């Protein structure tokens, strides 16, 4: 069973289409999305349509929940709040209803799925070994997938040892056959680890292997779409730098 794990698409259709084309070239049986289909980017309707059509599992992210009114925009930065309000105005009712039906946590094939973390699936960023240790204690499953931070990384806790973690680059792979793991595929639509290419994770549950992937896409096109929608220019500029 080979699974493509996507997260944090954020309305970036150019990045999503490039990743889906990459996924199509692999022998993938399912696609899982860990949330934040919308927010920041200029193509929320098309991104929702793509994910609804192709993904087998979809979580709700905090930006999705803000757009549907489940979270207050007071919790968001100025640029994120502006993008969320704009998305509320342009999002088709059927896509809004679909996003509202999603939850920020789930389980598939025996793996725990969380937008944020096993302790707080909406808001917590798992970016340190200390937080990972606390999350391992809270997990029911041996392996969990998380998004939210836009950083591709992994944490592992071998039996009887403390948790350790490291960022992951495109092509990195890990053996998941032993120990407890927390894996973040990185962000499709707005990476924040210094690599501007779209990020995703190829998970093989037969071999118990995970490989991080990076996919180049038309960043200039995504930037032009953001500017044409008159969203904050900073949301376009950051795509170029992977920040």
TrEMBL record:
Database matches in Gene3D superfamilies: 3.60.21.10
Domain Calcineurin-like phosphoesterase: 1-203
One cellular-component annotation, GO: cytoplasm
MF terms (GO), sorted A to Z: phosphatase activity
Lineage: superkingdom: Bacteria
SUPFAM superfamilies for this protein: Metallo-dependent phosphatases (SSF56300)
InterPro entries noted in UniProt: Ap4A_hydrolase, Calcineurin-like_PHP_lpxH, Metallo-depent_PP-like, Pesterase_MJ0912
Family of the protein in this entry: Belongs to the metallophosphoesterase superfamily. YfcE family.
UniProt protein name: Metallophosphoesterase family protein
Organism: Baekduia soli
């Amino acid at each position: 069973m080979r699974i493509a794990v996507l997260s944090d698409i954020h309305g970036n259709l150019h990045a999503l289409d490039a990743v889906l084309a990459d996924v199509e070239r692999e022998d993938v049986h399912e696609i899982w999305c860990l949330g934040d289909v919308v927010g920041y980017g200029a193509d929320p309707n098309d991104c929702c349509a793509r994910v609804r059509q192709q993904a087998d599992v979809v979580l709700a992210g905090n930006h999705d929940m803000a757009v549907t009114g489940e979270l207050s925009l007071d919790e968001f930065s100025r640029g994120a709040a502006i993008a969320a309000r704009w998305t509320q105005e342009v999002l088709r009712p059927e896509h809004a209803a679909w996003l509202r039906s999603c939850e920020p946590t789930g389980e598939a094939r025996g793996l725990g799925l969380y937008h944020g973390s096993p302790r707080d699936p909406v808001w917590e960023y798992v970016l340190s070994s200390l937080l990972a240790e606390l999350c391992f204690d809270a997990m029911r499953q041996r392996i969990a997938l998380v998004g939210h931070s836009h950083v591709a990384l992994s944490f592992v806790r071998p039996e009887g040892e403390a948790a350790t973690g490291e960022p992951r680059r495109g092509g990195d792979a890990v053996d998941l056959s032993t120990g407890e793991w927390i894996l973040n595929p990185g962000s499709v639509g707005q990476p924040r680890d210094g690599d501007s290419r779209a990020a995703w994770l190829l998970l093989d549950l037969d071999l118990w292997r995970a490989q991080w992937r990076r996919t180049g896409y038309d960043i200039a096109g995504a930037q032009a779409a953001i500017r044409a929608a008159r969203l904050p220019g900073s949301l376009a500029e950051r795509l170029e730098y992977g920040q």
